[in-house]
Amino acid sequence: MFWKYGLVDIDYSKHGYAREVVPIGSDILDNGNYMTTDGMIVNPQMRERVRLLDQRYREIMTYQDQYQNDALTLGEMEATLSGRDRTRSRA
After folding, report:
1. In whole angstroms, how far apart are CA 4 and each of 15, 17, 46, 77?
2. What's the first-to-final CA gap in the chain, in angstroms?
3. d(CA 77, CA 91)
4. I need a labelling partner for 73 at 20 to 30 A (CA). Which of 36, 38, 52, 63 fits?
């Protein structure tokens, strides 16, 4: 496979793609919100969405690693992801 070719160097770091970083100078409010220096208020629901997005990126990265190491076939990966999406849509 392409990514196993000796001259191809692909860096798959384990860092998250979506990360919440509270800007320096932000005011932390009592209700779990914080206000940035430019007046934008970030609430717990927004923070949770960022955390979930990061979690989903990490799941996909795990599937890609398994596929590239031949521990998972393309069909198995597609079935896993489509099954996950079906259960989410019922909720």
Report:
1. 22, 24, 39, 19
2. 38
3. 22
4. 52
